[in-house]
Design goal:
Order of helices and strands: HHEEEEEEEEEEHHH
Radius of gyration: 25 Å
Shape: elongated
Number of domains: 2
Largest sheet: 2 strands, antiparallel
Length: 160
């Protein structure tokens, strides 16, 4: 960089950005550095690109459509092929009855018995020692939109 005149740097960066965002080769290079994969569109489907600012739309050939797939794990880009995904175990909450993945084993202070309680029931338990075991962020960040305890479903806003 010390051999490149300072006034050229902006031009070089602008040209590189344009190449990265307007050419297939530049896009592939960028995605490769992010460890993302490019997948071709399904040739049995029809693709229409709509302009959200107007009422225009155009048909695009499946040969000209590509999808991007990748992941960022703990802040680091990884190939989707590196990621193993499985469903979390679900059980029934012994207080409210929902079947969920967010159950905690909690000792009931009144009976001494271990109970499976969902995060919501733990968070709003009358005993402070029990409700200290929950994290309200668990419900706020939950992606199960049809859960009766999801704040988004209840009309509450999510706080980041």
């Amino acid at each position: 960089m010390e051999n490149i005149p300072h006034e050229w740097v902006d031009v070089i960066l602008a040209g590189t950005l344009k190449w990265m965002t307007t050419s297939l080769e530049g896009t592939e290079e960028t995605l490769g550095r992010l460890k993302f994969d490019l997948y071709p569109a399904d040739s049995t489907k029809e693709y229409v690109v709509e302009d959200p600012g107007s009422t225009t739309a155009r048909i695009v050939s499946s040969d000209d459509i590509f999808f991007v797939r990748g992941a960022i794990a703990s802040g680091e880009p990884i190939s989707f092929k590196q990621l193993a995904i499985s469903d979390k175990d679900k059980n029934q909450c012994e207080d409210c009855g929902i079947v969920s993945h967010c159950l905690l084993d909690v000792r009931d202070p009144s009976s001494g018995r271990i109970k499976d309680l969902c995060n919501f029931c733990v968070a709003f338990h009358e005993n402070p020692r029990v409700n200290d075991l929950a994290t309200k962020e668990t419900c706020r960040s939950c992606t199960v939109a049809n859960c009766i305890h999801n704040p988004a479903r209840l009309g509450l806003t999510r706080q980041a």
